[in-house]
Design goal:
The chain is α/β, with parallel strands linked by helices. The protein contains 16 helices and eleven strands. Helix 12 links the parallel strand 8 and strand 9. 51% of the residues are buried.
């Protein structure tokens, strides 16, 4: 396959759907970890096409969504400092903290800027030596290498007015938390292909064997997901477990060694708070000792993160697969993309936003099912 349209071919999709239905002797429960995969499943109606054979549960694979309210409040505190230019990815500006969001802070005069790369934030610091420039480093292992490269360059170039609010988290500890939960129903995992492009799948092997489940590294297009689901269902029907790789065009078992080496030079594993999951051991990234001068929390004496969800927001239950977005009383009523109560309705990878855009749970809307050309 050379072209994007080939990964959305309706005839091939229908053939895979029939194979999954023919293979499944009962209804299996799978979790797609990545929010980007959730959007594809909902947009093209893959979950509905398979609902008699597979139930898809949506995981915490949205870095914007799992960033807790307390860390958003820390970013707001930095933005409100008149000496600080806060630089962030765009999605984070609309995520509500306990006292508003960064767009509102910018409307009040805060210097908040959007970039597409941490290296762009470093350039902002070089161009504004009279400002303290803080990059809000949010994301999974996918974006962490670029953050590591930015702080490495800042140290090498001697740029004193650059620092990081590090909120990076790593995916396998969250998967382990979900599978360890006594109420867990997940029988198989679709692992996020972009994270595994960096990290490989070695960290999933002990989880697959400990919990005796199939883990399938999966891409993001409809045919990727259907093939990944088929591979997981085949393993469940065979009674086998372990890690399989559907996303072979991008992922190798060892991942990207150079990117991993860059991360390891700058970061080490730390305990980190997750929205909906609480504090997970060794689930986050923190700066190593030689880079602590670039830690914004220490530089500005930020208070410990605290603060909980808005009353009535059930984002934590959505992120842990205990609740489907339309089951939340606020969904598509008080909580919409223009008036979000929680992060899953804001982010391009949020499950609530995926349901809203696909018209699920709202009258007069329907998804873009794979029954014709998308």
């Amino acid at each position: 396959m050379k072209y994007l349209s080939e990964y959305r071919d309706p005839a091939m999709a229908r053939a895979l759907v029939e194979r999954i239905r023919a293979t499944a002797s009962r209804r299996h429960v799978l979790m797609e970890v990545c929010g980007g995969q959730t959007h594809t499943l909902l947009r093209y109606g893959v979950d509905e096409l398979l609902q008699d054979a597979v139930e898809m549960i949506h995981g915490p694979g949205c870095p914007v969504c799992v960033t807790p309210v307390g860390e958003i409040d820390q970013a707001l505190t930095l933005a409100e400092n008149p000496r600080v230019t806060l630089v962030s990815f765009g999605d984070m500006l609309r995520v509500p903290g306990s006292r508003g969001d960064l767009l509102q802070a910018r409307a009040r005069g805060a210097d908040v800027r959007v970039v597409y790369s941490p290296l762009d934030a470093l350039q902002v610091a070089r161009e504004n030596p009279d400002r303290e420039v803080v990059f809000w480093a949010v994301g999974f292992e996918t974006t962490a290498p670029a953050t590591a490269m930015a702080v490495w360059q800042a140290k090498e170039l001697g740029i004193p007015n650059f620092s990081l609010l590090v909120c990076h988290v790593t995916v396998p500890p969250a998967v382990e938390w979900i599978l360890s939960n006594p109420a867990n129903r997940v029988e198989g995992i679709l692992a996020a292909g972009h994270v595994c492009t960096v990290m490989g799948w070695e960290e999933y092997e002990p989880l697959a064997h400990r919990f005796r489940i199939p883990v399938v590294v999966t891409g993001f297009e409809p045919l990727d997901l259907l093939q990944g689901i088929l591979m997981a269902v085949e393993s469940l029907e065979e009674g086998s477990w372990g890690v399989k790789n559907q996303y072979s065009r991008s992922v190798r078992r060892e991942g990207n060694p150079r990117a991993r080496m860059t991360m390891d030079k700058v970061f080490h594993r730390v305990d980190r708070e997750w929205r909906g999951l609480g504090k997970l051991p060794a689930s986050g990234l923190g700066l190593r000792g030689e880079f602590l001068d670039f830690d914004a929390r220490a530089r500005f004496g930020l208070p410990a993160s605290s603060g909980g969800e808005r009353e009535g927001c059930r984002a934590g239950e959505v992120l842990t697969g205990r609740l489907k977005p339309p089951e939340c009383p606020a969904f598509a009523g008080a909580c919409t993309p223009s008036t979000p109560w929680g992060a899953p309705m804001v982010s391009d990878e949020g499950a609530c936003a995926a349901y809203y855009r696909a018209g699920r749970g709202r009258a007069g809307h329907s998804g873009e099912h794979l029954q014709g050309e998308p």
